[in-house]
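Sample intake — Lipoprotein
Collected from: Agathobacter rectalis
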Amino acid sequence: MNKKLSMLLPVIATCGLLAGCGTDYYTKDSTVFVAKNGSVVSTDVEDFDTAAYKQDDLQSYVDKSIDDYNKKNDGSIKLKKLTVEKKKASLTMSYASTDEYTDFNGTKLFSGTIAEALAAGYDFKTDFAAIDDGKAKKCESSEFLDETGYKVVVYEGSSNLHVKGKILYASVDKVKLVDDKTVAIGDKYSLLASQTTGTESATESTEAVKADATEGTENGADDSVSDDDILNSVKQDNEVTFDFDSEEDNSAPVSYITYVIYK
């Protein structure tokens, strides 16, 4: 879960904002989706104490946080959908760029070419593996650093990471390959220890519906997140009617630096 969202509901210790809505971005686990143009959709999934808090209160608080940011920063963050079901909260948000995602969440996210990443100060000084047919094989960064046609995402968080392309290389530490577009991130993972991916593991981790799938509807309205949705967000004006700040939880979420190189 990203840092900013974890602070939005400080009184809900291990709970928080969840996402995972919209046809194209449904997922059972918190996931950051990065498009090749640098736009982002985040899905955060956590437990939610339905006995203590109501969905409407959560909705108002999130709306206010997004609206305040957009007004102060000329931002284009958009809340696509927020649901609370069976003590689970689900939140899907879109951002025009990785910079906007980083600024709002306090979690670093970079997307660009390898040359742009190097210019931004990312040194690629970590262990890497090449990915081929679901198998990971240790390699040196020199194998891809001079490639001009590759894109890279650098993420300093703990959610799953999904790119709009085929993953060719990835950093090894704290990473597990879910499918050819997605990696899971966590203490128990090592890319070289997870050599294959299958239908069962992919289903258990991230269930992102393919971009060309038929868009879903809810009460006749389109709930999917398209590229236009990401770039053309709509501000929402709601008053805050619930105080979530009475008990603060200042614990910092665990995060890792993950590199994903794709084409």
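Post-analysis note: The longest helix spans residues 55-73.
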